[in-house]
Amino acid sequence: DGGITQSPKYLFRKEGQNVTLSCEQNLNHDAMYWYRQDPGQGLRLIYYSQIVNDFQKGDIAEGYSVSREKKESFPLTVTSAQKNPTAFYLCASSNTAGNTEAFFGQGTRLTVV
Amino acid sequence: GENVEQHPSTLSVQEGDSAVIKCTYSDSASNYFPWYKQELGKRPQLIIDIRSNVGEKKDQRIAVTLNKTAKHFSLHITETQPEDSAVYFCAASKNAYKYIFGTGTRLKVLA
Questions:
Q1: Is the separation of the CB atoms in A107 and A33 below 8 Å?
Q2: What is the pLDDT averaged over residues B87-111?
Q3: Which of B1, B43, B96 is nearest residue A100 as measured by Cβ atoms?
């Protein structure tokens, strides 16, 4: 529901391993975003993109990478360089031409073990 | 860089009372201000929004006010009910792009 899907819902990773979180939307939205949510810190912007093959760093991009090869997809890779990767990750999309709100996926809870 | 401050971080009210959450934004170019409600373990969902050409907007028990000069906007919930208990986030954006969120307010409505 909501037209934006994240997978998996839960993900476990060993220290030192890279992991990729999936985000797909069928809303024909141009903009997509990745946020990290930690208790008491709200939603912090990791990366964002408005067009294919273009994206910008948010406030906490270190240790993360993204790609935007298709309008519908915006995968996030959490690299081994991210010092504290355990968190709840939310993907969102918006239609900037329509000036509408951001819609969120259901989130991926990443735990480093 | 852009910043949105949100207060209070927690808020407890008696059922039937009103709740007010306040946000301040730093980027004067921001022109769209949505409010989201997030229940435990779920995705944030829009409850109300306001654009910079409007000073106030209401939807049943929920209202939002915007003061562009002071760069403040607030969420007002009247006649609170237990199902209003959740975390609420404010956000600011320019032309509905690059949303910057506040740190959230955990609202508890006591029966």
A1: no
A2: 94
A3: B96
